[in-house]
Amino acid sequence: MSTYKNIVILTGAGISAESGLATFRASNGLWNNHKVEDVATIEAFERNPAYVHEFYNELKKELVKAKPNKAHLAITRLQKEYDANISVVTQNVDTLHEKAGNQNIYHIHGQINQAVCLNCGRILETFGDIDTETVCPHCHIAGMMKPNIVFFGENLLCMDKVDRLLSECDLFLSIGTSGVVFPAASFVQIAKYNNAKTYEFNLEPTSNNYFFDHHIYGPAGTTLPAFVDEMIKNK
Ligand code: OAD
């Protein structure tokens, strides 16, 4: 293993699976039990905001209880013990990276503990419920709060920064994502184009596994700590 200076770690729902959280596309996954077009599109929110709020309020209760697992903690260890700029770009709306003490986290699909005011654009941080009556603490208008989750058809968050990180990275690790949702699915291609070494950690081959130099199959809670041990040993 070489020495790396700029590392980007892309994570998806699979990194949180060993914390007891459902992924999206597994047989018992979130999208198996709910229709994307009912809870994860801007049209759904305009049509029935109460229903969408209820979905995310319920999900929030579950996510609040979850604890980080060995994969999240391995990232903390890497960030503390490996001398490089290490960023975590996550598609996950849970806050397990924060709970594990990870640094430099970019939530490109939003965060469950935030709501954005559609009137003033400012963010409310809360682990409590949000509904169609919630008043924005900044502009004091009621009924304009939307979960700060990126719905299908909306732009991703923090992309200026993420584009820069991808253009500079020399190591790209993708952990627990099926690689079917764009643009995150294309990050590996961008990193590879910029000469980064690319690793995929998953239970099984994914649809864009062609772009990875290395595949490490198995539960991330086992494979990632072992990989981090090796990196630290060989730094
Ligand atoms: P998916 O549910 O599509 O994929 C989860 C991936 O994790 C699968 O490829 C699994 O094989 C893998 N996996 C499961 N358990 C694992 C483990 N213990 N260790 C390693 N890998 C494991 O979830 P995402 O790829 O994150 O967007 O989905 C991307 C986006 O689709 C989500 O952010 C969400 C959804 O629509 C929004 O809600 C905005």
Measure the end-to-end span: 8 Å
Beta-strand residue fraction: 15-25%
Global geometry: globular
Widest sheet: strand ordering:
3-2-1-7-8-9
| Main sheet characteristics | 6 strands, parallel
The number of helical elements comes to: 9
Bound molecules: 2'-O-acetyl adenosine-5-diphosphoribose
Helix content: 25-40%
Give the radius of gyration.
18 Å
Structural class: alpha/beta
What would the average pLDDT be, to the nearest integer? 94
Order of helices and strands: EHHHHHEHEEEEHEHEEH
Which segments are poorly predicted (pLDDT under 50) over 5 or more consecutive residues?
none
Number of strands: 9
Describe the structure in brief.
It contains nine helices and nine strands. It is of the alpha/beta class.
Provide structural commentary.
This protein is of the alpha/beta class. Helices cover 33% and strands 20% of the residues. The protein contains nine helices and nine strands. The chain has helices at residues 30-33, 36-39, 42-47, 49-65, 70-81, 96-99, 159-168, 187-193, 220-233, and strands at 6-11, 85-90, 105-107, 110-117, 123-125, 145-149, 171-175, 197-202, 214-217. The chain has a six-stranded parallel beta sheet, with helices on both faces. The longest helix is centred in the first third of the chain and has 17 residues, at 49-65. It is globular, with a radius of gyration of 18 Å. The termini are close together. The model has no long low-confidence stretch (mean pLDDT 94). Residues 12-14, 17-18, 23-25, 29, 40, 91, 109, 149-150, 176-178, 180-181, 201-204, 206, 219-220 line the site of 2'-O-acetyl adenosine-5-diphosphoribose. 2'-O-acetyl adenosine-5-diphosphoribose (OAD) is lined by residues 12-14, 17-18, 23-25, 29, 40, 91, 109, 149-150, 176-178, 180-181, 201-204, 206, 219-220.
